[in-house]
Design brief:
Elements lengths: L18 H21 L8 E6 L10 E6 L37 H21 L10 H28 L1 H10 L24 H22 L5 H38 L19 H16 L8 H8 L21 E8 L2 E8 L4 H26 L24 E2 L5 E2 L1 H11 L3 H10 L30 E2 L2
Antiparallel strand pairs: 1-2, 1-7, 3-4, 5-6
Helix pairs in contact: 1-3, 2-3, 3-4, 3-6, 5-6, 5-7, 5-9, 6-9
The protein binds fe (ii) ion (2 copies).
Length: 477
């Protein structure tokens, strides 16, 4: 199942066998490149970037590294190979063959899911477009660009599905993907977290840790879809997504490491209202906690309402499963089972049993939160190993919410309900203030000499394709 790179659009879906589709995608391609030019990484056209390109969808096939100018990156269409006797694992069609075409009765739901997923991909590229100007090292700059080109490819994956399976509406939706823009007042991106700014590298690492991880869970449940081409697209996207979260986890970890190193070097502590770490050019752990609170809470919103009839329909009809559906030990129908959900009752948050079918969003959010915690534990190990007594913590899921029942209330990070007055008085202890943002911004100066690194972050421990940190990962020309 190798990828044909001789074609204008690299693919493993035998695109040349479908002239109509090939022409439609070839018409979309220059518009995509135009968008990349206008809203992709700023002033990066001539850089030679040491990028990884997929050459096949097999396990070792996508680790091909070379210097590439980003506009020449071979964006294309790669699906995990089809398994011709795959059956649907859940819902009322359980046991039936997976669909190779879109079932007419589920067409609009499937289209909406694909459009919503697809919209996030170019959105994150737009959000991150100015970061190259302030990269802490060439290693980080290269990773930023790698993620950007892959998000571009994820857009291709969704646009392929729209163009191949949804006729005219699909073509219109493909165009609209390039017309909505992150933060645009008239045509914003669909989901709110993708309209937020990513103004600095701390925000960026938090975004790739928390918000790309939402992608992992959404893609994971779409990878279970009864609509086989969607499932196969998402499976290949997941392999790329893992790297994005790795960049986030290690990025935050290195900032934590640097804070600890500074505390040790200058024999200062992290406690107190204005940590000394800032005096020495690092980012104190309290500020890291505030950014964590912000990015976690807006990412938790992405899972939607706690109880949702839409989500129930998606599951019941077999178009979107649960994360790791086939590994879950139950009847995969959920008609008679219940699921424990936190609910707001008056002024209290209590545990309730809800019909499991209506609670699939909440279940996905639970899986997500558990996964988020793993990295937090590794960050805390860095702090403990450096001899400091401080723990980073995920805030309660009710904290700072914009969607779902908790959007109506205010809580502290522990999930205690508080009054609006108290929130107004205290939220600056929990979320980044203007002053915090200004401080972080003041640290953002580019470091572009091979082997050099900014003062607020520790160098990475990992290599890229066996190349050490001092390798020239980007050449500016
Ligand atoms: Fe993506
Ligand atoms: Fe991603």
């Amino acid at each position: 199942m190798s990828i044909n790179y001789n074609e204008k659009i690299p693919n493993n879906v035998n695109l040349s066998g479908d002239r109509r589709l090939q022409r439609a995608l070839e018409r979309w391609q220059p518009k995509f490149l135009n968008w990349w030019d206008e809203l992709g990484p700023e002033k990066s056209t001539d850089f030679d970037v040491y990028l990884r390109t997929a050459i096949s969808v097999e396990k070792d096939g996508w680790a091909h590294f070379d210097y590439v100018k980003m506009p020449d990156y071979r964006w294309g269409i790669f699906l995990t190979p089809s398994n011709s006797d795959r059956t649907i694992d859940f819902g009322i069609h359980k046991g039936q063959p997976a669909w190779q075409e879109v079932p007419g009765e589920y067409r609009s739901e499937l289209r909406r899911l694909i459009v919503t997923q697809g919209d996030t991909e170019p959105a994150s590229v737009e959000q991150q477009r100015h970061l190259g100007k302030t990269c802490p090292s060439l290693y980080d700059l290269r990773n930023l660009f790698q993620i950007n080109v892959e998000e571009g490819r994820h857009l291709w994956a969704m646009v392929y599905l729209l163009q191949a399976y949804f006729g005219r509406d699909g073509r219109d939706e493909a165009e609209a993907m390039l017309e909505r823009h992150s933060g645009d007042a008239d045509k914003p991106r669909i989901l709110e977290a993708f309209n937020e700014e990513t103004p600095d590298w701390l925000s960026y690492f938090m975004f790739t840790y928390f918000t790309d991880r939402d992608g992992k869970f959404q893609l994971g449940s779409l990878a279970e879809s009864g609509f086989d081409p969607l499932a196969r697209s998402c499976r290949f996207m997941l392999t790329e997504e893992a790297h994005h979260m790795f960049v986030g986890e290690t990025g935050v970890g290195r900032i934590v490491q640097r804070a600890c190193d500074l505390m040790n070097e200058y024999k200062t502590e992290n406690s107190g209202p204005k940590s000394d770490v800032r005096k020495y050019g690092g980012i104190d752990l309290q500020t890291i906690q505030k950014y964590l609170n912000f990015h976690f809470s807006i990412s938790v919103d992405l899972f939607g309402q706690e109880l949702s009839t839409n989500a129930a329909t998606y599951f019941n009809t077999g178009i979107k499963g649960r994360f790791g559906e086939s590994k879950i030990d139950d009847d995969h129908l959920l008609h008679d089972s219940s699921y424990s959900v936190l609910e707001l009752q008056g002024q209290r948050i209590i545990n309730c049993d809800a019909p499991a079918l209506n609670a699939v969003n909440e279940r996905l959010r639970d899986d997500y939160i558990e996964d988020c915690n793993l990295g937090v534990r590794r960050w805390n190990k860095i702090i403990a190993d450096s001899g400091h007594n401080f723990s980073l913590k995920l805030p309660h899921r009710a904290f700072h919410r914009g969607i779902g029942q908790f959007a109506e209330i205010q809580t502290d990070p522990e999930g205690n309900i508080i009054s609006q007055t108290e929130w107004d008085r205290r939220h600056s202890d929990w979320l980044p203030t203007h002053e915090d943002q200004q401080y972080i911004q003041s640290l953002m100066h580019p470091v572009t000499e091979p082997g050099k690194i900014a003062g607020w972050i520790a160098p990475p421990k990992s290599k890229i394709n066996r190349h050490p940190f001092k390798f020239e990962f980007v050449r500016f020309n």
